[in-house]
Fold this protein.
Amino acid sequence: MKIGILQTGYPPESAQPFYGTYADAFARLLDGHGFEFASWACLDGEFPPDIYSADGWLVTGSKFGAYEDLPWIAPLEQFLRDSYAAEIPIVGICFGHQILAQTLGGKVEKYADGWSIGRVSYDVDIIDADPLPLYAWHQDQVTDLPPEAEVVGSTPFCQYAALSYGKKAFSVQPHPEFTHEYISHLISERWHDLPDGVAANAERSLTDGDICSNAMAEYIARFFKQSGRAVSTSDK
């Protein structure tokens, strides 16, 4: 099964020597599940030839807002809208979670209570882990649900942290692809760009224990395989 990674952001250049791109990070996260990967840098105006260029789509995180007037946002929304209508499975992570919700009729905005950064424990109904700790990095949130979305994960701070659209799509606000090394680097690099106390609190949260990226990776892989089309693009 071929997974197309739609890149909507890049890691800081200082992190790329040890972390690579977000496409690299997701390929590592989903390694061992029998997928092949291809990626397109949507934020640079690079899109797949058509929605059938992969058997499933994964939309990455980004420093940009889904609501921003950027030249690649509308084409990405149309691509996701067409893929959703064709029932090609979509997974959205952070910005991907937000842009998918916005595309399908929801609302995304900067959350009035500020940032969520660091290790966060999520209540996720569909994964056998209670709670499910993952790394978060966001100020924007989905604030109004799309009509077809079902809430399957939340925190007191982030009400719509994981959304299911049946077999068509699944999205989460946190970052299962983030490693401890990477988020530590981000906190250090962006310390002075964040509101007072946010970076320090985030750094302290990293000492609270491990995260459960593997559990989320298992769910994402299972979602793609169970929702994928009967005929793979590679078989055409």
In short: The mean pLDDT is 95. Residues 213-227 form the longest helix (15 residues). The chain has one domain: 2-109+142-176+212-235. The chain has seven helices and eleven strands.
